[in-house]
Amino acid sequence: MKYKLVCIDLDGTLLNSKRRISEASKKILKKAEELGIYIVITTGRTFLDAKDYSNLIGLNSPIIACTGAIVKEKHEPDVIYKSTIEEELSRKLLIILKKYNAKPIFNSLSKTYCGNLIVATIMRYLKFKGYVNRSVKIEFVKNSERWDEVFHSEKNNIVKCEIISRSRNKINSLRKELLNMNSIEITSSSNHNIEITTKGTSKGNAIKILADHYKIKKEEIIAIGDSENDLSAIEFAGMGIAMGNASDAVKEISNFITDTNDNDGVAKAIEKFIFSKY
C-alpha cells in the first residue's frame, strides 16, 4: 500500500521531551512531502502553534488543530472544517467547572482565554520563549461578567475548552460529571488535563473530513500518536502507529508500535511505511 496522507501528533509524538523536533524527523518528513504525500500536523494545540511547527519542518500540507475542531490549509484563508462550542454550551460548561473550582481555557482560532492567572502567566512565558506561537493573543479572564462577554463576542469562534490541574482527583471527578453531558466530546493528552469539544469532534473525524476533501481512501492514511486524544485518529487510519512512549490504550489498538519520541520514533515509522514502498 502506498500511503497518501500521514497525520502526526505533536506533544509526546513528533516533539521530544525537550519539545523539539529532531533533525532526522525534519529531514524525513520534508522528503516524504516532496513525494506528494500530505504530512499533516494533527494536534490538540491551536492552529497557530501547529502552523509554527509545520513551518519549522518546511511543510505545505494542511493542519488539524484543537483536537480536530479545526481543519485548515496553511496558505489559504478558507477553513476546510470548523466545529464550534456554542455560546449557551460554553456557559453551561463554566457553571459545572465552577463547582470544582476548575479554571478553564477556551480557544478560538487565534486567541486563548484563560481563567487561571498562573496558567495564563506560564503561557505568556512559553510564548516569549517561542514554545507558543507569538501571534496567539492570551487573555486572563478574571470574572463571570467577562466570560459572558467572551462567549457572546466569540460565539462563532470558540472551538475548544481545556482544564489543566495538578490534582488528579479534581480531574477525575470533573471528568465523571462531564461524561453525563451528551453535547460534548471529552478526551485528554495527559493525566492532568481534560479537552472538551462539541459532540462528534475528534482527530479521527477531522482526518476523515480531510481525506474526503482530497479523495483519499482510509487505507491510504497513516496516523501516529501517543495519548488518549489520538485514539480516534489511530482507529480511523488504515495504519495506526503508536509511539514507544504511548499509553497502553493507544498501543492496544495500534497496528504498529514504533520507537519513542526521544529516539526518532516518527522518523523510523515514516522510513518503514513510506520509503520502503518507493
TrEMBL record:
The protein's organism comes out as Clostridium saccharoperbutylacetonicum N1-4(HMT)
Specify the domain of life of the species encoding this protein: Bacteria
Gene3D superfamilies per the UniProt record, alphabetical: 3.30.1240.10, HAD superfamily/HAD-like
Pfam assignment, any one: Hydrolase_3
- Which SUPFAM superfamilies does the record associate with it? HAD-like
- Per the record, the coiled-coil ranges are none
Alphabetized UniProt keyword annotations: Hydrolase
**What does the entry list under GO cellular component?**
cytosol
Xref: NCBIfam families:
Cof-subfamily, HAD-SF-IIB
Question: What molecular functions are annotated in GO for this chain?
Answer: magnesium ion binding; phosphatase activity
Instruction: Output this protein's name.
Output: HAD-superfamily hydrolase, subfamily IIB
